[in-house]
Amino acid sequence: MLTPIIFALGIAFGSFLSMLIPRIRKSESGIFLGRSHCIFCKKNLEARDMVPVLSYFWNRAKCRFCNKKISALYPIIEILTGIIFVLIYLKFPVATLAQTPETIFYLLISLALIFTFFYDLKYLEISDLVLVPAIILALIGTLLPNTPSFTSALLGVAIGIGFFLIQIIISKGKWVGAGDIRIGALMGAVLGWQLTLVALVLSYLIGSVFSVPILITGKKQLGEKVPLGPFLVMGTFLTIFLGEKILAWYLSLAI
């Protein structure tokens, strides 16, 4: 099976994401082609310092040059991306050559979602440099099989935008941010209108499960900003993998 290869590929792309996130935040030149370097001492890293996951543990979570501690987010992003890649491959297997574009499409969308998850988690912001191209890609992806129709995707975009825009207007920007509107647009374009509704419900349920303990433990105060993006990404992934079954289950109860 190709599963181990897909996992290794995912880890490699996760390593790229872990580098891309801070570079985009700092608007560094050479975002895609520049040399990787330590964020503390700025020393250029060598090949042995950039082996996904393994280098982190081999160097004992420290920079080999300045001995500063390296965040655990790096191997977490790499491993998580590997797992997501495998799940995407199992959900959309490449049984024939004709199915390859569909699998590649969802792998690219998953990269945009993972990037958005960690970017918002770390910086409480959304980067349009990744999100806008992902929305365009999702709309183009409606030409592929096993994706929503273009009409359904447009309706999904309208629902995703409208859902958050209404909240911004009502709360005067206190409940959600403008970045959540763009995530809503991506959700709609990827999932179509019906599954977008499922994803929004799941996202807010997940958000409640995680936010309540955070408030109880005092790590966040009521009214203090909690990033919504990660919950929206989790809801989107859950819907990609299980959304149709969840929707069918709900409709069976309604009948």
Descriptive notes:
The chain is mainly α and 255 residues long. It has two domains: 1-91, no CATH class; 98-255, no CATH class. The chain has helices at residues 3-25, 54-58, 73-91, 100-123, 128-140, 150-171, 178-216, 229-254. The chain is globular. The termini are far apart. The mean pLDDT is 88.
Alpha carbon gap, first and last residue? 41 Å
Order of helices and strands: HHHHHHHH
What is the overall silhouette?
globular
Approximately what portion of the residues adopt beta-strand conformation?
Answer: under 5%
Number of strands: 0
Radius of gyration: 19 Å
What does the main sheet amount to?
none
Supply the helix-strand structural class: mainly alpha
Low-pLDDT stretches? none
Q: For the residues shown, what is the average pLDDT?
A: 88
Instruction: Please indicate the count of domains.
Output: 2
Give the helix tally: 8
Give the fraction of residues assigned to helices: 55-70%
List the topology elements:
Elements: H1 3-25, H2 54-58, H3 73-91, H4 100-123, H5 128-140, H6 150-171, H7 178-216, H8 229-254
Summed up, what is this model?
The chain has about 260 residues and is an all-alpha fold. The protein contains 8 helices and no strands.
Which terms summarize this structure?
2 domains
